[in-house]
Specification:
binds fructose -6-phosphate; 609 residues; alpha/beta; 19 helices; Rossmann fold; Glutamine Phosphoribosylpyrophosphate, subunit 1, domain 1
Length: 609
């Protein structure tokens, strides 16, 4: 996600901020900016694009001052642009802030503040929050009181760092569900979203707890709860070097991103869930549009296609609307009947995949409306699609996707539920039950991650393996495809996903003694079917690895290993079953000492055919 910095001390803030932001570049960003407070004035310099461009722009400006804030932005609300770049300010520049996260109720806040005469110049959710804080600051004339009042109203996940024009030498911050740390230097103090931004200045840090407010003043750091009461906190010493700090203490970006999935799921759902309801009006899926739909084509490549495969089962089962899934590279060159009343959904993390883009253009040529499920705001597919559902995974650095895949699943579930609701296939109780299940997924994903150690031990058995099979039926087959891809692309262990019923039509002849045969088994009505397929593999010497929900004891005596995932609604099991499979791929690749984040021959964004 975005990178955030705050500084107060004896040095020129702009220099500290620029070099700190440079340490956050690895996270990916599309715009950058700083603000410096001096003599009651806050000077902001920001732009779309690289930090070098910001540095050049700063040369021509007077940014003298020893107190300031900085930001690298990864767009979520509003395209990358100079205007949407942070910092953002209140109308009279009395409050200026940078923000990481999502203000879910920004529309409501904007509406209320518009009634008090506030005007809005950007497309961001952040601006609404800055102006809400400004509104309370004008009443209270006290940053702490303004912040405590504002954060009681702001919904979502956030980390804010702020300047108040008449508070010289002070930087304020607040966090909820996103990281913020305070660094203690000699007569200087820092705030940062990421320890790597300040390691060059200090290793002495305070970790803010959730829902805390922080003040930097006179080189000191103070903490408050959301009632405004001061809180004591202990200083810690960072032991990471700069490189491991970038990875949040994990050995690889892939593992860091695997651990960011709960947050990605929560934020993606939070972005379309308002006042107890799924609201897709912003992506043009109005009730009227839904009732006119004849069918859905979901088009994508690689892991995004595997999401489509899950979505097909979920949408058809919940809503009854026919879904056709297509590999973009095939769809673009096939001559087939296409229905003008269909909706073409293009799923893409990067929004730049050449085949997916070409497939979308083909849909347009046939007069079909398109909806992009996209992670990178302002990417080509996002710009050309008729409407966009942005996933909130944040920048993904590891070539092998994990958190974007998980966020895409959520987008598809939400669409499925909404289609089903509007088509009269869900009563209120079922609608609410499904939503509750989605809301519980983040916690369950984290529960699985707590068990990662056991998968590391199993993976060690396959360090010299040459082949693996991943089996499943229906949704579980879709998950098997993703698990198999994760294994092969980063560990170079040849693996195939097979619809379990197809085993007897050929692939079973490949099973050898000790071969990993992973079975995904989350759909009760198919337990016995897949169990038979797994036993056939076992009797030919396969190592049987099962992923199934707690409470399923099918094959508990026959399997070599059973990994239990928490129970959830059967439509959403992909979100949980994929996690142990991602971890298996990761651990085999690590055991083989491979470059997990940059597997050979692969690129993060496939912009050529
Ligand atoms: C696999 C992976 C790829 C992408 C595929 C599509 O881990 O990341 O298979 O899913 O290249 O990329 P996007 O989603 O950017 O269109």
């Amino acid at each position: 996600m975005c990178g955030i910095l705050g500084y107060t001390g004896n040095h020129q803030a702009s220099e500290i901020l620029l070099s700190g932001l440079a340490k956050l570049e690895y996270r990916g960003y599309d715009s950058a900016g700083i603000a410096v407070l001096e003599n009651g004035n806050i000077k902001v310099v920001k732009n779309k694009g690289r930090l070098q461009a910001l540095e050049a722009k700063i040369q021509g400006e007077d940014v003298t001052g020893t107190c300031g804030i900085g930001h690298t932005r990864w767009a979520t609300h509003g395209v990358p642009s100079d205007t949407n770049a942070h910092p953002l300010w209140s109308d009279d520049m009395s409050v200026v802030a940078v923000h990481n996260g999502i203000v879910e109720n920004y529309r409501e806040i904007k509406n209320t503040l518009s009634g008090y005469g506030y005007r809005f110049y950007s497309q961001t959710d952040t601006e609404a929050a800055v102006k809400l804080i400004d509104y309370y600051y004008k009443q209270e004339n006290d940053p702490l009181k303004a912040l405590t009042r504002a954060i009681r109203e702001i919904e979502g996940s956030y980390c804010f760092v702020l300047l108040f024009h008449d508070r010289p030498g002070e930087v304020w911050g607040a966090r909820k569900d996103l990281p913020l740390i305070a660094g203690q230097g000699e007569d200087e103090a820092f705030l940062a979203s990421d320890v790597s931004a300040i390691l060059q200045y200090t290793k002495q840090v305070y970790y803010l707890d959730n829902m805390e407010i922080v003040q930097l003043k006179g080189g000191l750091v103070r903490f408050f709860d959301t009632e405004g009461y001061a809180k004591p906190k202990e200083l810690s010493e960072v032991t990471w070097d700069a490189q491991s700090a970038e990875k949040g203490g994990f050995d690889h970006f892939m593992m860091k991103e695997i651990h960011e999935q709960a947050r990605a799921v929560k934020d993606t759902f939070g972005a379309v869930y308002h006042s107890g309801k799924i609201d897709l009006t912003e992506i043009n899926l109005t009730d009227e549009a839904i009732s006119k739909l004849s069918q859905i084509y979901i088009i994508a490549c690689g892991s995004a296609y595997h999401v489509a495969a899950v979505a097909q089962y979920v949408i058809e089962d919940l809503s009854g609307i026919p879904v056709r899934i297509e590999l973009a590279s095939e769809f673009r060159y096939r001559n087939m009947p296409l229905d003008e009343n269909a909706l073409a959904v293009i799923i893409s993390q990067s929004g730049e995949t050449a085949d997916s883009l070409a497939a979308m253009r083909k849909a347009h040529e046939h007069g079909i409306k398109t909806l992009g499920i996209i992670n990178v705001v302002g990417s080509t597919i996002a710009r050309e699609a008729d409407s966009v559902f942005y996933t909130m995974a944040g920048p993904e650095i590891s070539v092998a996707t994990t958190k974007a895949y998980s966020a895409q699943l959520i987008a598809c579930y939400v669409i499925a539920i909404q289609l089903a609701k509007v088509r009269g296939k869900l009563d209120d109780a079922r609608y609410e039950a499904l939503i509750t299940e989605i809301q519980k997924l983040p916690e369950k994903i984290d529960e699985i991650l707590d068990e990662a150690g056991v998968l590391k031990r199993i993976a060690a058995r396959f360090v010299n393996a040459r082949n693996a099979f991943y089996l499943g039926r229906n949704i579980d087959y879709a998950v098997a495809m993703e698990g198999s891809l994760k294994m092969k692309e980063i560990s170079y262990l040849h693996s195939e996903a097979i619809a379990a019923g197809e085993m007897k039509h050929g692939p079973i002849s490949l099973i050898e003694k000790g071969m990993l045969v992973a079975g995904v088994m989350t759909q009760k009505n198919l337990y016995q079917k897949i169990a038979s397929n797994m036993l056939e593999a076992k009797s030919r010497g396969g190592y049987i690895f099962i992923v199934s929900p707690r409470g399923c004891d099918v094959l508990k005596d026959e399997a070599d290993f059973v990994f239990h995932i928490p129970e959830t609604d059967e439509h959403f099991t992909a979100s949980l079953a994929v996690i142990p499979l991602q971890l298996m791929g990761y651990y085999v690749a690590v055991a083989r000492k491979l470059d997990v984040d940059k597997p050979r021959n692969l690129a993060k964004s496939v912009t050529v055919e």
